[in-house]
Structures
1.
Amino acid sequence: MPDTPPPLFGPTQRRMISGSLVVLAVGAAAAAVVYGLILVGDVVGFLSNVLWPLAIAGVLALILRPIVGFFVRRFRLRRPAAVILLFGIFVLLAALGLVLVLPPLVDQILNFIAYAPTLWANAIAYVDLHYPQWVALIQRQMANPTIRHAADGLTTELQAMISHAIPSLRAAGGGLLGLAAFITHVAVIPVYLFFFLLARGEPVQKIKPNLPFLGTSVRDDIVFLLREFVGIVESFFRGQLLIGLIMGVLLALGFTTIGLKFGLIIGLIVGVLNIIPYLGTIVGLAVTLPLAFFQPDGGWELVALVLLVKAIVQAIESWVLTPKIMGERTGLHPVAIIVAIFFWGTVFDGVLGMLLAIPLTAFFVTAWRLVKRKYFKAAAA
């Protein structure tokens, strides 16, 4: 009997090769996912003018569907009549808001814009008075041609960034033509919303019959994931809108009570910005702290009061509002939320990605848990 040839690779070498192949496969899969997301982001960016009215109308429809259902059951209305009643109530509330709320808000916004140069002058005067050595140091360094050239270049870059972030009407889309296109996109949202609200049943209930080319198990998984995603979007935006409005009212009352200038409009805007997690906190601190310190009757005491109001409202949001309204629907760690906001904002190149960051991340977490439970454990067994 001839001798059996020795194996080409030893046990250690086989383990190293298999491990390398696993790492290579995982890396290739991750690269494919990233490339796919980049392609999706490019497509979404290209079609953004078409998609964002649909996205807004879809989210609003998910939020308002329970109200339409309540009108149908309570008043025994047909669904079109219930939707028309909801639109009528919204128009009435909007009219009341225009009459009662909008004038003081617009007044505070205009006053804040007019006060901005005074605030900057107060800040410069404070620095000149209390930190003259820093002013002298900066002036000496700015006399250096190299540093002066670098500062001029940085100023030019900042101006270019601002011009791209807040473009004029001409740069935004061809002057009046671009403005007309934007108004058209906004005007079509109620039309989309009306027809979305007319739909009965769950939004994903008709998906499964339209996937006959897939196996029963795969179709069940797709329907489950879509239902989870719709549920996450619905609960997230409904909860975030309600939490943002409550926080805006609380911050406005708190800032106005402690004597912060323009506290009403700043509190409301900061509260609404909390729809995007942490954005309201960052913008609020960046605006309120300098304003509290440099306004005529301000100082460290007013800064402390602003921080106290922010801490109290944040505690109410974290301990009362979010557990009661949102619950543990997303179940994401705060660090994961921050990374998700930057990641999806980069992928979709704008605010739309930041708004959808939490629902999308929660959806992928749910999908991963499903795949791990259903397929990986089955393969291991």
Note: The first helix runs from residue 11 to 46.
2.
Amino acid sequence: MPILCIGLNHRSTPLAAREAFAIEGVDAKNALSFLVSRPEIDEIAVLSTCNRTEWYLTAQEETEAVARLRDFLRSHTGFPDGRLNGYLYDLRDQDAATHLMRVAAGLDSMVLGEPQILGQVRAAYEQGLEVHSIGPQLAELFRDAIALGKRARTETAISRNATSIGSVAMRWVAGHAALSQSRRLVIVGAGEMGALVAKHAAEVSDADIRILNRTISRAETLAEKIGAAAHPLDSLPETLAWADAVIVAATAPGYLVTADMLPARATPLLLVDLGVPRGVDPAVTDHPAVKLFVLDDIQQVVQHNLAQRQAAIPQVETMIDQSVSDYMAWLNQRQVLPVLVGMRRRANDLAQAELDQALRKLTTDDPAVAEQMSRMVHRLVNKLLHEPTLQLKAQAAQGNAEPYAQALQKLFALEDYLN
């Protein structure tokens, strides 16, 4: 039964359109329940994130299944066929399996190796289980992809070390603040960069955080999201005395932090300046307790970390190739399972009929004799079927099972044994 992947991502589709395709929560569960109830679709799962929406499905008649899914997507998005065609990619069988493996490993992400996608793949799998929209083929595929994603992250450098300015800055701050009893962090600026830094701060640090901004309402909105405190920008001088680390993610006509703002202090102060132009006066480094990092320092680390991740790509791709090969072998062998079961059932039925006839003709009713004959007959059946079973599975693993399976069905007259 074919496996299909129909979807879009950040490479194929702009953000505004991706938002129209996104589906989650109750809406996703209702959609899966509806679609799997259609006779054209046997199994279905959806992976929907900010960067992708992908539907994985199995179907006996793929043309009809794709048409049914496209009907749903037209209704969900309001987009006509022409617009759908411009966004959607369509992958089948091994290509579909390879794609999901790459997604789970972080090779298809906007940020190479990003860790969140593996949890999102797992959530899609669990959602499909919950609404009973996935069966054995998709369940095995998602389990293999999740296992592959874990291996890639533990055995290679694909997800190691931060590769964004905000995350690198926060890792420095977290390491610095760990030296302090108070762990006090200040983020200056509530714009795009300030929001990214604040997000990372909430994820990697349990510091006491203050957010300073010219427009206090923006600081309050951001602070509420991460459980921080909002302060006006003009409170910066006294806040510097309070802080262990300060990240400046704002710009101004002049320096926001100047040397004369820094009082004498016994504890170290880390300043991270993400501004262009700079927001921190370089003269602050004359203060013995102050350490300053600027954007160029951080970008060097980002590039180094990204190079390490990129160097891991061939190793991860080798893992993916093996996982896909194993899955396709499993899938192909599964497709010949009814023939193998039918062949064994027919052989056992014939053997049992001959055994019963032979036992009726015996002059002894010794149960030990009957038991020995039964064992002999069934051992003979197992030995006769052993080699055909191995050969058919081997051909299936290579994708060549169909002509062999059809030949066995005809040679052994298995039509009545395949239900």
Note: The chain has 15 helices and ten strands.
3.
Amino acid sequence: MAALEQVRRLPRSLAPLFAGTIATRLGTFVVPYLTIYLSQGRGFSLAATGQIIAAGGVGLLVGNLLGGQLADHLSRRTTLIAALVVNAIGVAVLSLALLSVHAYAIALGLALVGAGMYPPAANALIADLTTEAQRPLAYAVSYLCINVGMGLGPLLGGVLAASGYGWLFFGDIATTIVCAALIAVGVPATQVAAAGAQPRDGSTLRVWARHPKVVAFCGASIFIVAPLMALEYAVPILVRTTFDRALVYVGLVYSINAACIMVFSLPIERAVRRRNEAAMMSVAAMLWASGLGILALGFSISALLACTVVWTLGEIVGSVVIPTYISRRVAPSAKGRMLSLQDAVRSVSAIACPIALGAIWDGAGVGVVLAVLVAIPILGGVVYTAWWRRGLRIVDPLAPLAVASR
């Protein structure tokens, strides 16, 4: 009850953003089934499918950079709406019967440029409208909203896919439009414009270069983010081809993930609050490695469902720690560009994982794929534990300015 009371005390101006996030994530019908759509619906090989999805990762990365830049130089609301429009156009093109791998890669890249623009602007808006004390909880609630939609959407998508892939695209576009309407009507333009003043202090990459400690800390999170991107690629193939089960099990994995996030997000936020960030990321890595170990050893649909509970806890820890870490150390005029860093790490993973896993899967088999997935977060745990125990220090020349601006 105390946690719910704290949620009620968050700024009401965040409510349209949270509601819109639920709406658009509820329509996440396409991405969970994209590997099946491309490999079975369009007849591409797993390697070609991985290349198309990797092109989407490039689009995400471009969107992250663009979204952070626009959020700081225009307004948060304008950037959010533009992101949703671009995403809807890309999904509409992706639904067509295109002629080549390259055409699908371009269409997916466009869709995910829009998807990549959205998170930096949304996270910057949260940073603008909350105090430092409120911020970790606000990010936890935002992540919870994402996963309310992500839990229900793919499960519904599995039902829709049985009637035809076209319904997946239609639902995705419709919920994206609803999200854009909620933000356009509900987010106050004057408040966002005031928060997103007109800084002239360089490009996104230049701003990143001024915060080497933040870049290093967030860059190391690739060892925890990469398994999540790998699972987005691997789960549909595991369910449909390796375990020979109905596609609804793909939605069930997402639903279990979302249910755990809804149950555990607020307790975990309280548990990690004011604790050493590197230590908490080490815990996240341990949870990821443990969860993926269950899948590698059990190698069944039951193991897949059980492991989701464990690695989701690690996902929650990272989702709270990373944006809070960035927001505490960056001046307001650069928050959009710096908060795009965590999304850029995710996008790099989305580029690398499908290509690498597709090649490993075709060449060495699923056992090697799972072994690699277990090893990645173990390496991340080593890195963050060293940071924590040895007090790794990287000089941040703008740290005094960021502190003074709060």
Note: The radius of gyration is 20 Å.
